[in-house]
Amino acid sequence: MIDLGISKLALIGAIALIVLGPEKLPRVARTVGTLLGKAQRYVNDVKAEVNRSMDLDELRKMKDTVQDAAREVEHSIHSGASELEKQFSDIGQSSSEAIDAPPVYPQYKHPRKNWRLKQGATPQWYKSRNGVRTKALSGAARVARYRPHKIN
């Protein structure tokens, strides 16, 4: 890069002051500053894009290795399953002649619901959280519950 020291920057500033004059120098300095800022942002964007593409290449390589390993595992599982299937078919052919048992079905289990009891669609936890009455009160019980208490 360009080696700019304090003495070189002072010399450039003095020449700019002489050439441009004190009236135009602040405006030119602002313009140069904004252009340098835009250039730095552009360079940073390019660096970020290069880093992203490098990361993407690494991820693609990793994806390929994982897919290869998955294919190998799948192949080994299929080969093992086919071997087991052959063994079971050999065993089944030799023992199927000896065993003729009827199929076993699971026993019926009642769901234990009380069909005479009406159940609402609103869950009990929702009713209790929102203060919905779930039990009916008689008139006397309601009066006793909501009667104002005497304060002595």
From TrEMBL:
Membrane topology designation: Single-pass membrane protein
InterPro entries per UniProt: TatA/B/E, TatB
Keyword terms, alphabetized: Cell inner membrane, Cell membrane, Membrane, Protein transport, Translocation, Transmembrane, Transmembrane helix, Transport
Localisation: Cell membrane; Membrane
Pfam families, per database record: TatA_B_E (PF02416)
Predominant localisation class: membrane
Top-level division of the source organism's lineage: Bacteria
Subunit and interaction comment: The Tat system comprises two distinct complexes: a TatABC complex, containing multiple copies of TatA, TatB and TatC subunits, and a separate TatA complex, containing only TatA subunits. Substrates initially bind to the TatABC complex, which probably triggers association of the separate TatA complex to form the active translocon.
Record-linked PANTHER family: SEC-INDEPENDENT PROTEIN TRANSLOCASE PROTEIN TATA, CHLOROPLASTIC (PTHR33162:SF1)
HAMAP family listed in its UniProt record: TatB
Function: Part of the twin-arginine translocation (Tat) system that transports large folded proteins containing a characteristic twin-arginine motif in their signal peptide across membranes. Together with TatC, TatB is part of a receptor directly interacting with Tat signal peptides. TatB may form an oligomeric binding site that transiently accommodates folded Tat precursor proteins before their translocation.
Protein family (similarity comment): Belongs to the TatB family.
Name of protein: Sec-independent protein translocase protein TatB
Lineage: Bacteria, Pseudomonadati, Pseudomonadota, Betaproteobacteria, Burkholderiales
Name of the coding gene: tatB
